[in-house]
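Posting for a labmate who doesn't have an account.
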Amino acid sequence: MQHPRETNEQFQLQNDCLIRALLRKPTSRTPIWIMRQAGRHLPEYREIRARAGSFMALCTNPQLACEVTMQPIERYDLDAAILFSDILTIPDAMGLGLYFSEGEGPKFRKPLRTERDIEKLSITKTDADLSYVTDAIKLIRNELNGSVPLIGFAGSPWTLATYMIEGQSSRDFARSKLWLYERPEILHQLLEKLSLSIIDYLNAQIASGAQVVQIFDTWGGVLSTPAYRNFSLAYMQKIVDNLIPCSEGREVPVILFTKGGALWLEDIAATGCHGIGLDWNVDIKQARARIGPNTALQGNMDPAILRASPSVIQSEVKKILQANQGSNGHIFNLGHGISPDIDPENVRALIEAVHDSSRTH
C-alpha cells in the first residue's frame, strides 16, 4: 500500500482541519460542514435552480454544479465543500429514468419489478456514464484553489436499491423487504452490481480530485440487525476495501453514515472507515466510549435546532462539543441534511459557535 506523505506542495491545503480530524490528529478547532449545505435553504441556490429549469439539469451541468457547490463556501466559513450531486445518479445511469416531482422527492419511470429487470442492468462505468460528475469535481477543485477539501459521495447499495425497487421514497419499504426475505438471491445480485458501480464511481471521484468521500446509507436504519449486516454493511465493507487509499500524496478518508445506525456503531467502525456519521439520536459521548479512539465521529446536532434562536444554537453546540471533550477526531455536522426553511443567518450562527467554542475545548 502506498504510504501518504504529510504534505504535497502542489496540493497544499490552506485549511486541512477536516482531514486532520478524520485521521484523528490534533486540530486548532473542530471542523464543520453541513449535509445538504448547497441547497434550498440558500436564496442563491433557489435562483440558479429556477434558471436551470430542473434539479437534474443542475446535477448534469458541470458548470452549474460547480457554482452551486461553491455557494455555501462563499457565504460561510465552512471547513469543507461537498460536491453538488445526488445519490441516485448511478440508478439513473442504469436507465431507470430518474425525475423529481415538486414536493414529492425522487421517482423512477422504470422501477425494478422482476428478476429479469435486475439481470438487464449493466454495471456503470463513470467515464462513460457519469462523466458530468467528474468534470464538475475538476472545476470545483480549480475554484476552491486549495482553500478547503472537497468531499465526494455516493449512496450505499442498500439505499439505492430501495429507491430502484420502490420507484420512489417509501415509509415501509414493502417491496424491498419482500425481496430481502422472499428472494434474497435477487437482492444480492442487485447489491453486487451497485457495489461495483459505486466503487468505480468513488474511485473516479478521487482520481478527479475528491479528497474525502462519504457513503450515505440513508435507509440502513430500517433493517433488522441481521439484515443490516448482510444487506447493507457487508456491501459498504466491500466498497471501503476497494477504494483508492491515497491520492495527491495524502490519505483519502472515508466516512460511513447510516441514518438510524446507533445499534451498529461497533460494526461500522470495524469496516476500517475513518469516520462514522451520527444522527441526532446518538449520544456522542457514549458513541466515543463504544468505538474507542481510532475512528472519527461526525455529527450530530438535530437539524430542527436551526429553527431556534442563535442563543439556543450556541448552547446546543456547546453541549455536543463538551460531550466529545478530550478526544481528537470530531467533525461537527447535523444529524441529517439541513431543512429548506432554515434562515441562513442561523447557519452562520452555528458555524461561528462551533469554531469559537471548540477553540476553548
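Reply:
Got it, the C-alpha cells are right above this. The chain has one domain: 9-300+330-339.
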